[in-house]
TrEMBL record:
<dbReference type="GO" id="GO:0005886">
    <property type="term" value="C:plasma membrane"/>
</dbReference>
<keyword id="KW-0812">Transmembrane</keyword>
<keyword id="KW-0472">Membrane</keyword>
<keyword id="KW-1133">Transmembrane helix</keyword>
<dbReference type="InterPro" id="IPR050833">
    <property type="entry name" value="Poly_Biosynth_Transport"/>
</dbReference>
<keyword id="KW-1003">Cell membrane</keyword>
<protein>
    <submittedName>
        <fullName>Membrane protein</fullName>
    </submittedName>
</protein>
């Protein structure tokens, strides 16, 4: 990863080429994510895959919360590029280092209270890997946000791809040497040092990492706190959903492994690209701040259109793909896969409305929307229905609460 030049001017509008670069990186990232899941599902039995998937979800949960730093950094750097420098100097990367260390310490310090309810095997290794991975990802997410705010989409995409490729390499090595579950735990967190590799290789990334935020330290942390709270709630529904299932359903066993894999596979085609393109979305909505509700129409229409195709494909080809791709132990009917895909569409729409709410600096409404959606989903998961039914109901109905909160807030801006 090298750069021919180091652009230093202010960020421009979100262009099609920028979206295309991130789109290509997203495609590679999605393939790599599928590859890790495929290798884990083929190498482990369904019960073992369930254990891995809970750790994968737990790491996704905490790093998803850390993506609040990405969102706030994108907004702050985008706004700072349009105004004359002055006032207090806030350096997001330094704050991210402090936040990462404090967060890692909190994970370890509180592990006795929660780890036995989440990690049923390799508990303390899981706790330590979770803490170390979170510390690295805080810097990773902040650098991603700064690159998005500054409009450096090539470096943004390179950071995404480096993270994903590291995971696949470790997972592949795990299969070759027979490392088993422990190897896949390491693969989950292995990409958390990708930010450091990019800084070593890219002059543009190093220059971007020195940029200062629009607000002072207190204002930046206040906005980041709201974004982290909302991103944490969103992460429970997106990446941390296996943890939520574990917490509300006890030992998931083989059935849980099948349901978790089905949830992951049906949502990835929509949510992986949307999560990766948060920087593009927030920058777009910042640029369209006078017409935010109107600016929502095209992204939501695209999400719903792609989702409708996905629902049909899941119903028709999903069971066959699941069985052929992952083995005869992974069986789910087409109706379940179609409903899970519809749930993914609902979460995708919530992701888009959330990005618009962040761009409007409506941090309380943003967090309230995601927290409301998560609380509703958790309540629905606690109902006395079978695992498949309550999973579908939670994924379909929970996001509607958050979408309503976001739209109400945007209507008032």
């Amino acid at each position: 990863m090298t750069d021919a030049a180091v652009p230093t001017g202010p960020s421009g509008p979100v262009t099609r080429s920028g979206v295309a670069r991130v789109g290509m990186a997203t495609a590679v990232t999605a393939v790599c994510g599928y590859a890790v899941l495929y290798l884990a599902a083929r190498d482990l039995d369904p019960a073992g895959f369930s254990v891995f998937a809970v750790f994968w979800g737990a790491f996704g949960l905490v790093t998803g919360a850390a993506n609040g730093l990405l969102q706030e950094s994108t907004r702050e750097i985008r706004l700072a590029s349009r105004q004359a420098p002055g006032g207090a100097v806030t350096r997001p990367m330094r704050l991210a280092a402090v936040v990462g260390l404090v967060s890692a310490a909190a994970v370890v310090a509180t592990a006795l209270l929660w780890s036995s309810h989440v990690f049923v095997q390799a508990r303390w290794l899981s706790v330590l890997l979770l803490a170390a991975g979170l510390a690295g990802f805080c810097l990773h997410a902040t650098l991603l946000g700064m690159l998005a705010g500054a409009g450096h989409w090539s470096q943004y995409g390179a950071l995404m791809v480096t993270d994903a490729v590291i995971r696949v390499l470790i997972a592949g090595a795990t299969v070759l040497v027979g490392w088993g579950l422990v190897g896949f735990l390491w693969a989950t967190v292995g990409g958390a040092l990708a930010w450091l590799l990019l800084l070593l290789a890219s002059p543009t990334a190093r220059l971007t990492a020195t940029l200062v935020a629009h607000e002072d330290t207190r204002g930046f942390l206040r906005g980041a706190a709201h974004a982290v709270a909302a991103a944490g709630a969103s992460a429970i529904l997106v990446m941390g959903f296996p943890v939520l299932l574990q917490a509300t359903g006890g030992d998931l066993g083989a059935t849980g492994g099948v349901v978790i894999l089905a949830v992951t596979l049906t949502r990835a085609p929509l949510l992986v690209p949307l999560t990766a393109m948060q920087g593009n979305l927030i920058a777009h909505f910042v640029d369209q701040r006078r017409h935010r509700l109107r600016a929502l129409l095209a992204p939501i229409a695209l999400v719903v259109g792609v989702g409708a195709v996905g629902v049909a494909l899941a119903a028709v080809a999903g069971p066959w793909l699941l069985r052929v791709g992952f083995g005869p132990d992974y069986i789910a009917d087409g109706a379940l896969l179609a409903w899970l895909t519809a749930g993914a569409v609902a979460i995708a729409v919530l992701t888009v409305t959330g990005a618009a709410t962040v761009a409007a600096a409506r941090h309380r409404a943003y967090s309230a929307g995601w927290v409301g959606a998560t609380v509703a989903a958790a309540a629905l998961l606690a109902t006395p229905l079978d695992l498949e039914t309550r999973t579908v109901v939670a994924l379909l109905c929970g996001p509607v609460v958050g979408i309503a909160v976001h739209l109400a807030a945007l209507a008032k801006t």
